[in-house]
Amino acid sequence: MQGQEKVVPLKYGNMDHWVIRNIKESAIIGGNQKTVYAVGPNMTIHGNTPYTNKGGSPWGSSNVLAHVSGIYKTNNSVYRDRHGSGYCAKLETHIEKVKVLGLINIKVLAAGSLFLGNVREPITSTKDGPKAINWGIPFTARPKALRFDYKTSLPNVANRIKQNGFSGASTVAGRDHAIVVLYLQKRHEDAKGNITAKRVGTMVVRYGKSTNGWVEDATYTIHYGDIRHMAGYHAATMGLRSTDYARNSKGKSVPVREVGWAAADETPTHLILQFSSSDGGAYIGTPGNTLWIDNVSLVY
After folding, report:
1. DSSP readout, 112-153?
2. What is the rounded CA–CA span in Å between residue 51 and residue 42?
3. Does the predicted TM-score (pTM) go above 0.85?
4. Listed residue (40, 35, 77) closest to 278, CA to CA
5. Fold of the domain spanning 2-299
6. Residue 236 belongs to what H/E stretch?
7. In this structure, are residues 275 and 151 in contact, taking their beta carbons and an 8 Å threshold?
8. Which long-range contacts (CB under 8 A, 24 or more apart) does 125-129 make?
9. Which helix (H) or strand (E) holds 238?
10. What is the pLDDT along the chain (300 residues), one digit of tens a residue?
11. Contact 179, 207 (CB under 8 A)
12. What separation in angstroms does the CA of 20 have from each of 35, 49, 243, 296?
């Protein structure tokens, strides 16, 4: 069987090509020069320019430029890193600190996230963050599996923290995990621009401990149709979702509401794929949780 498989790399999925953005944050928060990375053709962009995906790159990330109340601020939690003779993506959960006039301390926990889709910049408020993301890309194939190289470095702590701005960190029970999710969806947009979807295919893997170096060619089966009775089904990460946003045909950001499971032989319209250094949701995680990713491909 091995000889018959067809491996199709995702565009820029070898993580060897990166856009480097040089952005200057506002003076009121320190005026720092920041480097913000994006997966795409080799190029450097100087200045506080809202980013759109370059060179047909399908990859968006948690690296963003925000412009809130006249202040330019960046977040960078996905980095270019070395792997062999080329590069890989390093996703890291960290505390993003902001000091306004050296006085007001704002601390926010941000996970590193790399996904298929794009982000509408600049982010103008923390509330608008999720809506700025356009999740998924048009996709009509039915791959058997997802394959990539990975490495993890995960602090051995029993609980996570939640840190979302002005208040101190609170404890959230349970270990943090790095996570990879793949969903194939069949989407439908109604006359009013609302998007619903049926879930065609699902693959979720969570990592709870550090690896001993790189794991090459890790391959995970994509399961089709209603998988609720499958061994290993994890409702919180594999169940139907309504938390993701996408842009409809009018360019408006709307929630993608999954309304059911598609038949196992259904053809999808969209592929959602996300790699993340934490799995607890916004502002929740363990600082230092790190996931390296390289050579992302689909297996047929």
Report:
1. -EEEEEEE-SSB--TTTHHHHEEE-EE-----SEEEEEEEEE
2. 15
3. yes
4. 77
5. Jelly Rolls (2.60.120)
6. helix 235-238
7. no
8. 125/68, 126/68, 126/164, 126/165, 129/282
9. helix 235-238
10. 556 899 999 999 999 999 999 999 999 888 999 999 999 999 999 999 999 999 999 999 999 999 988 889 999 999 999 999 999 999 999 998 887 776 667 888 999 999 999 999 999 876 778 899 999 999 999 999 999 999 999 999 999 999 988 778 999 999 999 999 999 999 999 999 999 999 999 999 999 999 999 999 999 999 999 999 999 999 999 999 999 999 999 999 999 999 999 999 999 999 999 999 999 988 999 999 999 999 999 999
11. yes
12. 7, 12, 30, 21
CA distance 202 to 182: 6
Provide CB contacts within 8 A for 62, sequence distance 6+: 75, 77, 78, 110, 111, 112, 113, 114
The residue with tokens 């994509």 is 222
Structure tokens at 53: 């995906």
